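Researcher: Structure prediction, please.
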Amino acid sequence: MIRLYQYAPAWGMNVSPFTLKLETWLKLSNLDYQTIALRTPSQSPKGKLPFIQDEDGTRVADSSLIIDYLKRTRKIDPDHELTERQRAEAISLQRLFEEHFYFVLSHSRWIDPLGWATTKSGYFGFLPPGVRDLVSAVVRRQIRRAQHAQGIGRHSQDEIYAMGRADLRTIAVLLGNRSYFFGDGPTTIDAIAYGFLANIYFVPIETELKRIALEFDNLRLYCERLGQGLGFLSVAAGSGSPQ
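Model: Predicted structure follows.
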């Protein structure tokens, strides 16, 4: 069985877009796996989560490289019916999520004061108060530096959220009224999209980014439908609450 190492859950769900992306992909590919929660990524081969350990002891880090590895070793590919154009569009959309929108989402959690208040308690609430303040401040400072180095941290909050709105509008237009981005069933890009969008809609971090996301009904309904279909969300919850 595949052992999936990921961050400990907060608010009853997987709150890392990249680890939720991978777990979603494992579910839609019907692969058996066991999750192991870690508080820090120090055990990872690349110092980041997620990573997996395969049955033969092979360890692979990075969500995209893990998916490529599992496609190759398990002879399974949910994208096999995609055309060349659809594959190109999927890669473009993946880059939008992972290379740009990720930093908007990160800002809403770690830098925006409204998001930070909730993030601090949700991520670091297991620590004693004094240690919690110290550790959370160190991590927040690291993320602030990373955002500045990437470039998005050089903009005002209004500018950052305007970029987020443009990203979400693009995603909403590309999805349209379809159940999935391509075809009649979920593919890898749906796992990626769910990993990011669920981390807005189903996490109790109330920032301008979430208010913007709620303007796009097709994205919200898409997340609820996909989350319920894969067993991440309670069907009885109606609003798409984590189990």
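Model: Confidence is low (pLDDT under 50) at residues 235-239.
Researcher: Thanks, that helps.
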